[in-house]
Amino acid sequence: MSSTLIERVLPEKRALTTKPRPSDVAFRTVLNVMSYSSLLILAAIGGFLAFRGFGAFKENGFGFITHAEWSSIVGDNGKEVSSFGMGAMITGTLIIATIALFIGVPLSVLTALFLTFYAPERLKRALVTVVDLMASFPSILYGIWGFIVLAPMATYWAKLVYKYLGWIPFLSVPSPAFDRSPFLAGIVLSIMIIPIVTSVSREIFAQTPLERIQAAYALGATRWGMIRAVALPFGASGVVGGAMLGLGRALGETVAVYSVLNIVFKINWHILYGYGGNIASMIVQKFGEASFTEKKALLAAGFVLFVMTLLVNMVANTVVSRAVKSGK
Amino acid sequence: MATTTVLPRKPWKATKADLIPVFGALALAAILDFVVVAVTPMKGKIAYVLLFFIFGAGFQMALKWRNLGKRAAIDSLAGSVAIAGATIAFTPVLSLLATTIVKGAKGLYPGFFFHDMSVANYQSPLNQGGVVQAIVGTLYLIILATLISLPLSVLTALYLTEIRGKASGFIQFLVQAMSGIPSVVAGIFIYSALLLTTSLRGSTIMAALALAILMIPTVTRTAQEVLLLVPQDLREAGLALGATQWKTVATIVVPAARNGLITAVILGVARIAGETAPLLFTLGVSNKINWNPFSGGQSALPYYVWSGLGDGTELGIDRAWSGILVLLMLVLTLFVVARVFGTRKVKIK
Questions:
Q1: What pLDDT is attached to residue A3?
Q2: ipTM attached to this prediction
């Protein structure tokens, strides 16, 4: 009797190692490199705009930021005489953004409070969808709606405001021209920032610790008492961050403002009066017929806008993420 | 033996007897509102709305004050203000949708979707010309911008969720900062980098590059959220079975997050589909279908609307409304599709 030997084939022993496989090395390298794409894009935007606009900065010096005049005339000898200043546009942008925040933020906070503490569950879910929907509307829709539907109403409101509050310096007007004013542009922008401010505020309010809410009720607080003592102090920093995100939007909005605002290169403090300034819209307005030199100046203006919005957004994001973290 | 079921009682719930005075007060406010507007010189919609709010909130307050005291009255006022604020904030949405549908429907006819603008201009009667070239252009832009931004976004999101390297916080910060870039800046950046000093002219690919810059942050952030939803157990199971990290990500994590990643792309597309400002610098002009994305001008729906609005004539603006209606339908479809995929993604949890 012969016994058959069963031959067992064992795989070769693998050396234990912490050395990553080539596929992993490649994978990690690709991810590491690609993750810097956002840095590359931001740097390229800043770099190119600053590089192209450098001439305009150099020629106009500090006046590029402070002067209100923007002109480029080709003289008789064929030489171009130009003077570029963005003073009116920068102040105009800030004025319009301030109006937008002044109207939009209180409405957004009230909406967020309503959604978090007042609305029944079903209505709340529906309205949160509507807020998201509002954020996805194209800006040109706000522009054409603002121009056709809102403008006549806003002119009427401006007249009312002027009639009763015209004695306040910035609400007065040199002559009765109320069309296409910064006031109108501010209202359009305030509608456009409502979704972002509302959703950030709502997220923060929703994180209010339940035990604090219940503690307030147990101590006999009314709903408003609870909101004032618990929700508002808790959500304040989040609301501020949301408002700053809204400010970032309002500073950079182009098409909607262009559609409703009468852009004139003069500083205008009368918000109801029919002209104003806005950097982004001014770039669109001037670009089509601009000469090479003027185009470069417009790119420099774009650089200023880029830096402004980037700074505002960075601060806003830091504030929001801190608020969200402290809530958790 | 008869059994009785004790139904849960909700003593805090408002009974009918509680609601009668509330609605009674509102009805009274409405009546008083009409009377005051009719009698006094105050006229117009503002007067109606404002007075209704004052009377309504006032009556409710008085009611609460009489029954429950001062603090209840203040509480009721705060509630009224919150409701009023939310109402004001949501009114524009109704107006936007209603106006777009009413005004946009006027210029729609079957040919609007099949004709281009080479046979008509903005002042032609509304039954000539159409947006087929703009629809093709917008689809081209969406496809190209997605092809450019998707790899960058998903890889960045994977870096943030799978590698979690030292630079994660910094990258996250940059992506958030990127989401604040104004659209006009993206447009003039592509113009200054590629078009200003070269012989290149505006074309579909240039506009797609500008749009991709705007799309990347949206897709990255959504993709990151979705990848974080993939349970850690799945990753550990993959590694425990001896798969390398690359295999785990490619065969387990990404397939598990597939629906969510589709949502991310759709949200990104919805973000850029209606962008107008970058197109003004990078797209060139075309009133016919241009099948070549690399040379020659192109049209797009937002650009069509922009031109109609810029035309300024009544017919031009009518055309713009029709264009915006088509664009809005596209965005709404994307929105609904993203919702459907977005709710499905919860299942992998």
A1: 61
A2: 0.89
